[in-house]
Amino acid sequence: MIVDHFSHSQLSKEERMWGTLCHLSAFAIFLLPFGGNFLGPLVVYLLKKNDYPFVADQGIESLNFQISLLIYTVISAMLIIVLIGLIGLFLIPIIGFIFVVIASLRANDGVRYRYPFTIRILR
């Protein structure tokens, strides 16, 4: 896990708030079950990417993590045949929830958080 710390003087409170929302907005999946976890971070990213480099960075990171979770879920679903997939389908949402909370807290502190196990598709 790679993290870069920025002093609070480098990042405004508003920039840290929008960076935090990049991660927390993935919980929109509870409102929109199909695609909400992508839609929330994407909206925040598109709205604020040109205003704040930190938000652009954290938005891409959040989207990459959500895409990675989708890929891992699809693989787990295919592995249900050998029963290993059931474990993955149980653990992936729990792990996703935990890492989104951690990322949100770190972004609020002005840290460029990098999720573990993330496939970097978007740059």
TrEMBL record:
Chief location bin: membrane
Annotated TM spans: 21-47, 69-102
InterPro entries to which the protein is assigned, alphabetical: MamF_MmsF
Keyword Acetylation set for record: no
Membrane recorded as keyword: yes
Record Pfam families: MamF_MmsF (PF09685)
Keyword terms: Membrane, Transmembrane, Transmembrane helix
Lineage of source species: Bacteria, Bacillati, Bacillota, Bacilli, Bacillales
Domain of life: Bacteria
Protein name (record): Tic20 family protein
Subcellular location: Membrane
Protein's membrane topology: Multi-pass membrane protein
